[in-house]
């Protein structure tokens, strides 16, 4: 069984892969999220619904997330933010507003994002993610 912390890692990773493969001109990814997630898990492991929903909803609400995040980027453009940081921001936004709406505290979502950021991006990006999420998750 996959823990909640492991789930967040898989969600972040799948979103990152999808962002890397995203064809902005066509507005689509090259593979379905389920296929990407399956590649990350053990071959025989069933994809937990929380992971699948989180990744699919992140991609589905990409435009909403971008619209909400962009005003807080101050001197940054979304396209210039490292893909892994984008993935963490998208995952967090979606988790708060769509996956567990009204069921999860803002602090929990931000702490999860910061934990991932501290492991996978530099400290400056972790602080950047924290600042953005503090403003976006109201």
Comma- or semicolon-separated keywords:
7 helices; single chain; 67% helix; 138 residues; mainly alpha
Any chance you could write out the topology, listing elements then pairs?
Layout: H1 4-21, H2 33-40, H3 49-60, H4 62-69, H5 83-99, H6 106-120, H7 123-136
Helix pairs in contact: 1-2, 1-3, 1-5, 3-5, 4-5, 5-6, 5-7, 6-7
Structural class: mainly alpha
Cα shape:
globular
How confident overall, as mean pLDDT? 90
Low-confidence stretches: none
- The percent range for helix content is 55-70%
Rg (CA only): 14 Å
Could you tell me the number of beta strands? 0
Cα separation of the termini: 32 Å
Explain how this protein is built.
Helix content is 67%, strand content 0%. It has 138 residues and is mostly helical. The mean pLDDT is 90. The protein has seven helices and no strands.
Summarize, please.
The protein is 67% helix and 0% strand.
């Amino acid at each position: 069984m996959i823990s909640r912390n492991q789930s967040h890692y898989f969600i972040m990773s799948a979103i990152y892969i999808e962002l890397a493969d995203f064809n902005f001109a066509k507005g689509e990814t090259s593979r379905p999220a389920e296929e990407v997630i399956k590649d990350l898990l053990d071959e025989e492991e069933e994809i937990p619904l929380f992971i699948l929903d989180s990744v699919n909803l992140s991609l589905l609400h990409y435009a909403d997330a971008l619209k909400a995040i962009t005003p807080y980027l101050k001197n940054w453009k979304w396209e210039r933010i490292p893909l892994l940081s984008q993935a963490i921001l998208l995952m967090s936004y979606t988790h708060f507003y769509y996956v567990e709406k009204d069921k999860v505290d803002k602090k929990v979502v931000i702490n999860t994002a910061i934990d991932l950021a501290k492991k996978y991006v530099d400290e400056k990006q972790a602080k950047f993610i924290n600042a953005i999420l503090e403003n976006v998750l109201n």
